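Record filed here:
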Amino acid sequence: METRYRSQPADTNNAGVMHGGHILYHLDSTAGMTAMRHAGCNVVTAAIEHMDFLAPVHPGEYLVIKTSLNLVGRSSMEVGARLEAENPCTGEARHVARAYLTFVALGADGKPVPVPALVPETDEDRRRMDAARARKERNKK
């Protein structure tokens, strides 16, 4: 999934760049839609596994969030995200952040429910799945 949000002056912090909290809000919303699409039901954020802010997003730039489903457990899903800042006039984009989030699918009773298995279709899908498994194992330790 890919979404775009235009950074507004009201989104800025004291340094004059997009506030990290605004970035996290849009990231969580987009990643949640990716998880919900796969699960076919409501999901909740269980963890923001990792978040690296690499460069600022300036007012007027587009915050571009690209997400992918990396790993599926019984009721949980890892969604990876690449965030870019794009100049709306030139289309030039810069990699500004990356993150991994875990979501849990919920039934109507608010309890976790099983989700469909994830079947990797490309070498890139398999690479993301292997990396997600490795992160999961590291986190268990």
Summary: The first strand starts at residue 2 and ends at 6. The radius of gyration is 16 Å. Residues 20-39 form the longest helix (20 residues). The mean pLDDT is 96.
